[in-house]
Amino acid sequence: MIFMFIVGIISIFMRLWLYGLLKNILSKKKVSLSQSFYDGVRLIPILIVVILIVAGFFLLALFALGIAALITAGIFYLSPIAGLIVMIPLIICGIILLIAACLSLSYVTPIVIMENVDAWKAIKSSYQLFMKHKATTLALGLLSVLISFLAYLPVLIYQIPRGDFFGNQQVSLFSLPNQLVSIPLAVAQLFLLVLYVLAYLRIKKGSKR
How far from 137 is each of 76, 143, 158, CA to CA, in Å? Predict the structure, then answer.
């Protein structure tokens, strides 16, 4: 447990270092490993606030969804047909709103990495970019899902026959085979991070013309 905690902390700092390195490279600054690490670490407070704000919004959405579910259950109890008529549009609207909410946050990480802004400004700017570039953002989202699924296939193929998803783990999470099949997923995450940052910079450059 302690080992996994240490590995998790190291992974977080490695990701932050990657953020700083990416910023220095794309900003065409002199690349310094130590400066990149510092640039990444200083993003911690902003990222924490972003997580708290997003979590707060989703909790409010869940609360509203719970109220809607109670009302629908009451209607369904009185009249099953009327309950279905109300429930189906609510489910469809809920799915659409969830997808839209996720897409509206697509540019938060690139903005936090590349710009000196606070958490709320990053979220607001990401939402504004999504509203102006819905088709591009949706295409990026679909591409991200496809790439992530393909990258995760080796993990599924390796782990499912061993019962790793059913509480009967026969191999260590940190075993060499397990780490090897996870490489495509790590590469996909890095590729998607760079892709979103480049997409943000391209949109930003286009809006200045």
Answer: 37, 10, 32
